Amino acid sequence: PSRTAILKIRNEVNVRVRVDHPNIARLIEIYEDEKQLALVLEYCPGGDLFSHLCDRGRFPEQTARVIVQQMLAVLCYLHAHDVVHRDLRLEKWVLATQHDGSGFPFLAGPVKLVDLGNATVWSNKSKKMDVACGALAYASPDMLVGRYTQACDLWSLGVIAYRLLSGHSPFHGRQQALVSQILSGAYTTNTFGWKGVSKEARDFVERLMDVDPVRRMTVNEALNHVWIASLESKNDVPLSLDFLTAVEKFARCSKLRRANLTMMAYSVTSEAAGGLDKLFFAFCKSPKATLGLDEFISAMKTQFPFLDIGQVVRLFQAMDSSCENEISYNDFLAVMLKPQLEKEEFLLLHTLRKWDADHSGFISLDDLRVLLGDRYSNDALEDMMHDCDINGDGHIDFDEFIEAVRNEDDFESDSRDGYADFLASPAAGRRVAIDKELKW
């Protein structure tokens, strides 16, 4: 690939290792040879929204509303993590699950954002972005002028909503004509294609497609707009004793086993996750899509009043893979899918390769330092190696690894009277493993 293409893919990797949301397609693997560099994302067989729009002409308003609500949730998450997408369009969104080809199946499964190639981390809010990118038909006036903020994403979402509701683009013509129309906001919601669309939907689109980025709705304002806010929430799923049991079992596992489960969970697709995203968001209300300690305590004490605060805190610490006092969606999947993950032979082998940072065929103490050294002392890592190295040869081979990550009695001594210390950052380990595979 060209250097430009490589830099774009590397940029996407840099962004993807920061994000973890049910409506963003997951990065499974990276492959490179002499001729190509490929990102392997989770399989989403339902097709992209642009193709569906071409096939069907326009979407029913209720369907469009549910789709846009999911897109807003992703935007809210990205912006909360200082990520600006800069290239939102229908082609970038796919249906996570297959459908039968009849009617509008979109209410049954989620839509997912699949491309982050033009996304950027915008942490210095005092300096506006100036690089125009993405498709012109979706570009905001402020991006075309060359001084823009994250508000550019809201304009693009407005164009998406416009097309879903009306079946056509708000702007037409060749490049210069498009630029002129976009800069002046020369579009209308009174054409024949808008017949039957509610005034709330029209207002929503018009407030997103405001030429002035200061007047344009923010992502939070869009989420609170009556057209979106009036949708019934389907995330009010009560926590059951099964959830508590799963968390307790996870918390009693060794550090290595918990870290391995969390790493394996990055390969979980929407189909495998089932409805766990709804369960996660039943008690995670943060725009960052992470669960803080206070929120976790409140939810757990409400559902399980017999738990004392100390127990709840220890459960939280066991789930918190980043050690940043927050539980991510991936942390949640690792807990809830533990039995299924540990039965996946291929996934276990795949994850073992991640642990084997130097590709020696086994896990050494140095490998543990690479993946876990930022969270554990050298003594703690040596203890971990000692616990797993059954034959005492100084490293963890395949059989020892399988024994360590599958043995139900593989509990640490400090777990027997409570719960283990929180695990190290597998997200950082995942990043190291990815970087080692990329030969820039």
TrEMBL record:
InterPro entries: CDPK_Ser/Thr_kinases, EF-hand-dom_pair, EF_Hand_1_Ca_BS, EF_hand_dom, Kinase-like_dom_sf, Prot_kinase_dom. Transmembrane segments: none annotated. Its EC number is 2.7.11.17. Keywords: ATP-binding, Calcium, Kinase, Nucleotide-binding, Repeat, Serine/threonine-protein kinase, Transferase. Residues 376-411 form the EF-hand domain. The keyword Repeat applies. GO terms for molecular function: ATP binding; calcium ion binding; calcium/calmodulin-dependent protein kinase activity. Monomer. PANTHER family: SERINE/THREONINE-PROTEIN KINASE. This is Calcium-dependent protein kinase CDPK4A. It comes from Toxoplasma gondii ARI.
